[in-house]
């Protein structure tokens, strides 16, 4: 497989800004993307519903399945593979066990949605609910995720789960923690999603200070990547997906008094949602040591497979009609730079298609 280029559908523009999935798929096709992560908000939009803030209008299972089949056909028509459905989140370790059962029932629907889409994977970010709602008991977290993995293996085709640590997560905010969980779950269809932004952000960057830097961050990233290589080099098959991304400084430090400050969450949360960039976009302000992280993943561990270019910033929320094409173009340029930096030529199959 070597390396194949993918992108989350949301990273080509939010449906709430008027960017249809069809338009985004056309943009992806135009710039040589071979796969997409289908974001649930786009599935809802295809089903003809609108998103209201962060809550979706009720959508019956039959409408969801019909939308999934339609999306599958849309992607097949453009020779684009659906690599996963995402993000199924706020699931593991819930202290309210009734809520857990409710989320598990939703997960069963997602498994069927994944099959209807023709994908074999669901991406699952670590929970970011408040501390009083999420257990710190890793055994409970692992049991919940075992339950999910076992549900994905009940019928053919099996569904895999790519579990992602996040800098904004309540408990699983470092890759070491997510790897610990993967080992505890110990299921063949449960592995990791490595996101370069989340691997570097908490130990290198501080969006609450003017410099955006943590003292000693360069050394911390280097040591972390050495540990990552040592831990995962012989377990690269447990890396189900790699997401590439960087970030820029916030407009001002995210501290009390800042319009972007929320006392209920850490500064990294808002920063990760609004200031992320594609790999290599230093001209736009990207400043994390992502090349070092990428080198550890691709050349140190030896990962090969899907590489998805994830983005979160205000450009996605812009209603201009050229947003999907613009973001697809920027991602393709990023991909070419990644291929150059990693020495992939000619392995990165779409790097030349700009």
Automatic annotation (TrEMBL):
Residues 25-323 form the Xylose isomerase-like TIM barrel domain. It comes from the Eukaryota. Gene3D superfamilies: Divalent-metal-dependent TIM barrel enzymes. PANTHER family: HYDROXYPYRUVATE ISOMERASE (PTHR12110), XYLOSE ISOMERASE-LIKE TIM BARREL DOMAIN-CONTAINING PROTEIN (PTHR12110:SF21). This is Quinate-4.
């Amino acid at each position: 497989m070597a390396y194949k280029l993918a992108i989350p559908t949301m990273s080509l523009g939010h449906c709430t800004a008027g960017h249809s999935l069809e338009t985004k798929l056309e943009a992806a096709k135009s710039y040589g993307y071979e796969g997409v992560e289908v974001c649930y908000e786009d599935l809802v939009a295809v089903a003809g519903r609108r998103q209201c803030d962060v809550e979706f209008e009720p959508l019956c299972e039959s409408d969801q399945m019909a939308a999934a089949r339609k999306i599958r056909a849309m992607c097949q028509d453009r020779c684009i593979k659906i690599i996963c459905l995402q993000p199924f989140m706020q699931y593991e370790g819930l202290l309210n066990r009734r809520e857990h059962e409710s989320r598990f029932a939703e997960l069963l629907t997602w498994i069927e949605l994944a099959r209807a889409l023709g994908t074999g994977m669901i991406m699952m970010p670590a929970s970011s609910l408040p501390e009083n709602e999420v257990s710190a008991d890793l055994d409970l977290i692992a049991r919940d995720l075992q339950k999910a993995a076992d549900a994905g293996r009940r019928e053919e085709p099996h569904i895999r789960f790519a579990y992602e640590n996040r800098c904004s997560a309540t408990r699983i905010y470092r890759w070491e923690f997510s790897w610990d969980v993967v080992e505890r779950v110990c299921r063949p269809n449960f592995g990791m999603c490595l996101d370069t932004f989340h691997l570097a952000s908490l130990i290198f960057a501080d969006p609450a200070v003017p410099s955006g830097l943590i003292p000693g961050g360069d050394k911390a990233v280097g040591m972390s990547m050495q540990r990552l290589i040592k831990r995962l080099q012989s377990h690269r098959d447990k890396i189900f997906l790699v997401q590439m991304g960087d970030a820029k400084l916030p407009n001002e430090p995210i501290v009390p008094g800042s319009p972007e400050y929320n006392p209920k969450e850490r500064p990294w949360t808002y920063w990760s949602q609004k200031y992320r960039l594609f790999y290599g976009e230093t001209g736009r302000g990207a400043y994390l040591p992502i090349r070092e992280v990428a080198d550890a993943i691709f050349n140190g561990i030896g990962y090969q497979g899907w590489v998805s270019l994830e983005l979160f910033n205000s450009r996605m929320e812009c209603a201009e009609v050229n947003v999907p094409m613009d973001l697809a173009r920027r991602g393709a340029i990023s991909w070419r730079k990644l291929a150059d930096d990693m020495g992939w030529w000619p392995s990165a199959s779409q790097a030349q298609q700009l």
